[in-house]
């Protein structure tokens, strides 16, 4: 995130607003508490100065709508005052229903079948928020560091990261090296793992969250007369 | 036959100790600048499909690796590698034998509810 904030031809960002989506998620995602506290640890322990990094949240059950959901994210974050929105690979994605870069395509050139022949910020009455599309960071053994895929020329030896691989590492109880997880962030994951007896979202966690977060409302009566 | 997939077994200190003197040390691969040690196996397409079918949450990740298999599956895979001192296709032949597979599945079913947290100090 630290490097991603300074990529591309945009002005370096003045600050990073993390707006975590909190609510029902797919089985195997990290639990809400760990997501929020984990992000906070990034600035609490100085990995990104708190002068430039703020953690907020939006209560929303993920629909995994990839490009369509990215429009909602764009609206929310624009309304929060953001000038740019970072989009990575597989934004709001599950499985391989969408192209891994579908959201970036929408924000780069539009998707006519969605009614957006231009990017969302280029259509009439469109959004003002602009995308910062991020390809991929990998570990390059030749450079000996984390490198950006569009900058590093060693794709043939690059060691890619994978969320699934990292989740597997955690499930096996192996502490991820600092190059993957800041130690303080990992300890927060373990803290909530002890609370829920599980490091990730499972059915029991979803049932618990449904009881805590869902609000029963009376059916809305909407007049059909204008 | 389709493109082979891969699967990796992560080696912590205990596992590295277990493979000492087995001849498997030579195939250990460094990941992320040596921060992690792994053994990688090629998985023929038909075996990969079988694993995905047996463990519905397993998936092929962006790197072409089979991931999100139960911890019990990876644990058993390591045991078979050590037992056969091999990373060839015969590993999967042994691993997917009905008796072994049902033992793995039984353990995997319990993983949905509980995974033992590691014993580390909390500093948050």
Which short descriptors sum up this protein?
heterodimer; A: alpha/beta; three-stranded antiparallel beta sheet; two-stranded parallel ribbon; B: 124 residues; alpha+beta; 5 strands; 41% helix; globular
Can you tell me about this structure?
The complex is a heterodimer of chains A (226) and B (124). Helix content of chain A is 30%, strand content 14%. Chain A is α/β, with parallel strands linked by helices and 226 residues long. Among the domains of chain A are: 1-62 and 182-211, no CATH class; 136-180, no CATH class. In chain A, strand 5 (137-140) and strand 6 form a beta hairpin. Chain A is globular. With 124 residues, chain B is of the alpha+beta class. Chain B has one domain (5-111). Chain B has a 3-stranded antiparallel β-sheet with strand order 1-3-2. In chain B, a hairpin with a 4-residue loop joins strand 2 and strand 3. The radius of gyration of chain B is 15 Å and the shape is globular. At the A-B interface, strand 7, helix 4 and helix 5 of A face helix 3 of B.
Task: Tell me the layout of helices and strands.
The complex is a heterodimer of chains A (226) and B (124).
Chain A: E1 16-22, H1 32-44, E2 53-59, H2 67-79, E3 84-87, H3 102-109, E4 130-133, E5 137-140, E6 145-148, E7 159-160, H4 163-171, H5 183-196, H6 203-213
Parallel strand pairs in A: 1-2, 3-4
Antiparallel strand pairs in A: 5-6, 5-7
Chain B: E1 5-11, H1 13-19, E2 29-31, E3 36-43, H2 45-54, E4 59-60, E5 66-67, H3 71-84, H4 90-95, H5 98-111
Antiparallel strand pairs in B: 1-3, 2-3, 4-5
Helix pairs in contact in B: 3-5
Task: Give the H and E element order of chain B.
Answer: EHEEHEEHHH
Structural class of the helices, strands and pairings of chain B?
alpha+beta
* Overall strand count of chain B: 5
Distance between the termini of chain B: 50 Å
General shape of chain B: globular
Subunit organisation of the chains = heterodimer
For the residues shown, what is the average pLDDT of chain B?
A: 92
Quickly count the helices of chain B: 5
Q: Which chains share the greatest interface?
A: A-B, 42 and 34 residues
Order of helices and strands of chain A: EHEHEHEEEEHHH
How many beta-strand elements of chain A? Answer: 7
Low-confidence stretches of chain B: none
Structural class of chain A: alpha/beta
Could you estimate the helical fraction of the residues of chain B in percent? 40-55%
Helical residues, percent of chain A: 25-40%
State the strand order across the main sheet of chain A.
Answer: 6-5-7
Strand content bin of chain A: 5-15%
Mean pLDDT of chain A: 91
* Strand percent estimate of chain B: 15-25%
How many discrete structural domains of chain B?
1
